[in-house]
Amino acid sequence: MEMNKYQYLLQDLTKLKGVGKKTAEILKQKKIFNLFDLLFKLPKSYVDRSEKLKINQLHIGSVATLKVVVKKYSFPRIRNLPNKVICEDDTGSIECVFFNSYEGYIRKILPLSETVTISGKINYFKKKYQITNPTYVSKDSSIIEKIHNKYTLTEGISEKVYNKIINQILQNLPDLHEWLNPEVLKLFGNESWKSSILKLHDSKNIGNLNSDFYRRLVFDEILASNILFSEIRKSIKKNKKHKKIISKKNINDLEKKVNFKLTNDQKKALNEINYDLSSDSKMFRILQGDVGTGKTIVALASALNVIDSGFQVAMMAPTEILARQHYTLAKNIFPDKVKIDLLTGKTETKIKKNIYNDIETFNTHIVFGTHALFQKKINFKKLGYIIIDEQHKFGVRQRKKLSDKGGVNCDILLMSATPIPRTLTMTMYGDMDLSIIKEKPKNRKEVLTYSKNEAKIDDVLKFVKKEVLNDNQIFWVCPLIEESKKIDHESAIKKYDYLKKKFPNQVAIIHGNINPDDKEKILKKFLKKKYKILVSTTVIEVGIDFPNATVIIIENANKFGLSQLHQLRGRVGRGTKQSYCILMFKNNLSENARKRITILKKNNDGFTISLEDMKLRGFGDLLGFKQSGIKYFRLADPIHHDGLFKLAENEIRRIEKNKESLLKFKPLIKLYDQAEIINDLV
Ligand code: ADP
Ligand code: MG
């Protein structure tokens, strides 16, 4: 039965012969939990042990397989001296040398006078051939005389054990019912899943990443991910919600208050959001826009419609200071009748209780806050809209949870300042609708980017002095020398002391060791221009708006990735004044660092930069997705397999259009996503 076949593949590793708790634990560390996971760890190379040699044909330093007779033992019983076994064939003799093996074990695998096959690397020592700790010893030559794959091994698992494990799975590999469409399958030379997996582990195919079988497996993986997204979307859109009413007047009033007009892209995004709000299916949308493109006002304008329609709004930001900034802005521009609250982890208990109460009794319309907003004990009376700012690290499961949380009537908007290429967006956020703001407000001047050798710090100081005299503010980001926070702080403090002497009373510092209260105070003072220069480690908060900061100096710029540098640079150039980014570096830049700096100097558009970043670093490393666990592919790579991602997109569209039953895809999704999330979907 089909069911059992994939259940077999999802079994625990301990179900295999030769895999005990210890081995399973080691594999778990490598994120290999079951048989299926193991299938996607590819062999890196192989060792040919198929040809048997005579002792007089041996090459020193290479791996050989020999058939020999066991002649004599030498067990010296002195610590640190190895046990030895002398073996012979009709052309000569060879010593098997064993470190850390007991006499009993050696006698068992190499019984006196018997013929055995051994395989290992040949050494020559004191005029004798030797094999130290032979990889294979067996009376059954057939299990040795073949090609053995080499996998990237984890400490604690030998090549022999690993091969034994993987071969067990391959031997019992089930033939799964084909889920691919015949036309699609043809594109991959009609390779079935089973034959593809077997070929993946065939030493002949190592490194053959453009073959039909490999691409088929990549496609399977992308398709599984897309079907999952499609199902989540469908399940979210399925329930009918209360439509919200959109008023044109709101945005006109707001524009008057903020004293600027929305850009065309802002208008377009706002229209898309409003359209969703006014429809009878739930909005599940992501608003993507480069730093400084003005996402906040779009979110607030849409929120006002929801409030006018008689619902509450919750807007979450990743940090207190950013939440407070949104809160303050709303206070300034929303009509007086709108009741606004701020709730963060730091809000006083008494005030907190009042706010909880207001939320429950509909005495507040919109609440800004950090993740404190979504605690269990907070019950919105009539929540109609959740806005999440700067949460590009929300994975698909967290998003699904979020969408369930608000209930049917609650629309959802995520905002991200991480522009990414389209294929990648589909890959990461395929479950959501997408709005993009590319255009920056017209009054902006492009940030001018320069690079400067550290030795020329005096030039930089001269420039800083000029800016300070012009009443502009400066961020000074300190080197990220090592992964050590302590050292980072120290270098920031050093720079702070240095700058303080040159600019008395005008320099402040924030770093990870400063407590959040003080940090917020310092940032607030900086916002109010009490300081001119803010020295910091990389903790300059995402999203905060400092329109008066015109210079950002980034030391050791070569240590940052492109997208990170772009984000940092986005802290300036948010007002009307000309802004500057100075990338400082030490003498010997690597080729790659040089490329990054050049790209950044030439480009100000986050989409272009992230594409370049992807080309340089590969998808896995981009924006730290690998660490964040947002999306994990076994074989697929959005850069390398761009075409297959597009093919999968078309295939999903076809499946959706034909309302094709998902039954045949069930094993695919079960195997590839292994997620509880699908249980209630498929
Ligand atoms: P982000 O998209 O990075 O969140 P913000 O919403 O913080 O950007 O906006 C950055 C700055 O641009 C703010 O000071 C905001 O007032 C201003 N701004 C937003 N939209 C416009 C516009 N259409 N014209 C001029 N300034 C704008
Ligand atoms: Mg923002």
Structure description:
With 682 residues, this protein is α/β, with parallel strands linked by helices. The chain folds into 5 domains: 1-45 and 161-174, no CATH class; 50-145, Beta Barrel (OB fold (Dihydrolipoamide Acetyltransferase, E2P)), CATH 2.40.50; 176-238 and 643-682, no CATH class; 248-437, Rossmann fold (3-Layer(aba) Sandwich), CATH 3.40.50; 448-603, P-loop containing nucleotide triphosphate hydrolases (Rossmann fold, 3-Layer(aba) Sandwich). Helix content is 40%, strand content 18%. The strands form 4 sheets. Strands 12-13-11-14-15-10-16 form a 7-stranded parallel sheet, with helices on both faces. Helix 8 packs across helix 23. The protein is globular. Bound molecules: adenosine-5'-diphosphate and magnesium ion. Residues 258, 260, 262-263, 266, 289, 291-297, 417, 441, 443, 543, 545, 547, 574 line the site of adenosine-5'-diphosphate.
